[in-house]
Automatic annotation (TrEMBL):
This is NAD(P)/FAD-dependent oxidoreductase. Belongs to the class-I pyridine nucleotide-disulfide oxidoreductase family. Its cofactor is FAD. SUPFAM superfamilies: FAD/NAD(P)-binding domain, FAD/NAD-linked reductases, dimerisation (C-terminal) domain. Residues 10-331 form the FAD/NAD(P)-binding domain. InterPro entries: Class-I_Pyr_Nuc-Dis_Oxidored, FAD/NAD-bd_sf, FAD/NAD-binding_dom, FAD/NAD-linked_Rdtase_dimer_sf, Pyr_nuc-diS_OxRdtase, Pyr_nucl-diS_OxRdtase_dimer. It comes from Cellulomonas chengniuliangii.
Amino acid sequence: MNAEQQALEYDVVVVGAGAVGENVADRAGRGGLSVVIVEDELVGGECSYWACMPSKALLRPGAVLAGARAVPGASEAVTGGIDTAATLARRDRFTSDWDDAGQARWLEKTGIDLVRGRARFTGPRELSLEPDDATLDAAPAGTVLRARRAVVVATGSVPVIPPVPGLAECEPWTSREATSAETVPASLVVIGGGVVACEMAVAYTDLGAAVTMLVRGDRLLDRMEPFAAQEVEESLMELGVDIRFGVEAVRAARQDGRTTVELSQGGSIVADQVLVATGRRPGTGDLGVEALGLEPGRPLAVDDAMQVTGVEGGWLFAAGDVTGRTGTTHQGKYDARVAGDVVAARFSDGPAAAEGAAAEERAAAPWSRYRATADHAAVPQVAFTRPEVSAVGLTEQEARAAGMAVRAVRYDLGNVAGASVAADGYRGTAQLVVDDARGVVVGATFTGPDAAELLHAATIAIVSEAPLDRLWHAVPAYPTVSEVWLRLLETAGL
């Protein structure tokens, strides 16, 4: 280090100040460790500014409007469609107009130092910082950060643009541009069929765009139950979305403000904008992990304590998308809490050290707070499409592939009294995947209006491994949609 370089030392360095990094830093700091968090964009990360919050703000008006139209007495009051300007303005409020001052203040109140800049590993427990030109209070170029105890990587993931000739030059949208757009294109081509693709197809159709989806496979939402994907497909088509299966973009060009996409099956389609939603890769490409003997652009493989494998010394941890284990904010935050607790237990001094070490010794027990076991058995996810799709645990196919003797128990949500009160013509489905050998639920999927609100009960049932005959005594209130739990158990034979 030369004389002009500034060295900053902390017990723990967290790289990435998104929701995952914030949770790691908070939990690690509770054991008395000094913690710094490094960020080269906005504190709060992808979820706050370009993913969860703005996307749901864009989707909510359409869901509310559809809900009102399904209830006589309210439907008569609906005299118009979605107000695009008001929707975008409300979205902007949720993102704080892409100003992170409030979240930076939270770090300060919590006792976590913030350093702005782009961090790269230069060796074990050491990173160099380069300022982000757009950040006025960035660390000086050449600043070195050293961790006395641990480094935790929480750099998330970045969207992938497929290598279609001409596509990158057309400046397509990714999820970032789709959730932060200031205007609505008259026509939008969505490449992809996953959660982001389906959600944005709904949102932009609601906002008045003519949407076409290009899906390489033969179905949407290929990580969810087939019946759920089918219901979303039917709903999108009813909304007017043109879905083309078994189709790939093979070339793209932009001229006079419009993009022409040539298709694998022949022909082409022209649109004002293209959204690429074909997946993401871990944010390790420019992190300097090669200095640690790791491969850039690849996930940081971790054990259930969130310690990175393949790096000696037990000092490197990772959580969230960057590990390749999870792809949602809520599960990333769960992993972050585990990582932070493990770091605090292993590296805190004084009485806390002995207590933490003893606690982690007991961590081999199932469902220990020092192990991210939910990543294997109870990952919840919601697609805020119409209908919403919420799922947790294993699909029927995944359970069978794992060697379990399971059966699927399904019930039509429209036959539940609470659903009929919620909306005329309520459409939705509930399914449990039951492991008959143990008599427990290992997976659940719900579709329908506000189906996300049914998910946590299923998550609790799976995590607690509650036997079906015990769940029989968990009485659902009447008339609510949750009464479907009683109907599912009856269908299961109780």
